[in-house]
Amino acid sequence: MPKAFDEITRQASRLPREQRLALAEFLLELEEAPADPQVAAEWEQEIQERIRAIEEGSARGVPYEQVMREAQDRLAG
């Protein structure tokens, strides 16, 4: 491994837990970022439209427990 990588990992291991988790989240987000900026913009627009629909009352959420129960029923059936 390059020295820079070894130094970074050594320093990261000394961080407080909260900062290590924030670093891990940052690194994962780098990998999950869409390669196409247009795709990212379209997803952002979709998210904003869904939030607006819920706030305006034209859409409703489904409780987590119900979603999980229905998913389990589909997988079991």
Would you kindly provide a written description of the structure presented here, covering whatever features stand out?
The chain is mainly α. It has one domain (3-76). The chain has four helices and no strands. The protein has helices at 3-13, 17-32, 37-56, 64-76. The mean pLDDT is 91.
Core attributes:
77 residues, mainly alpha
Structural class of the secondary structure composition? Answer: mainly alpha
User: Level of helix content?
Assistant: over 70%
Helix tally equals 4
Task: Count the domains.
Answer: 1
Task: Count all strands and give the number.
Answer: 0
- What is the rounded Rg? 20 Å
Question: Order of helices and strands, N to C?
Answer: HHHH
The mean pLDDT is 91
pLDDT < 50 stretches: none
Distance between the termini: 49 Å
Taking the sheet with the most strands, its summary is: none
Percent strand: under 5%
Shape: elongated
Structure summarized in a few sentences:
This protein has 4 helices and no strands.
Could you give the topology of this structure?
Elements: H1 3-13, H2 17-32, H3 37-56, H4 64-76
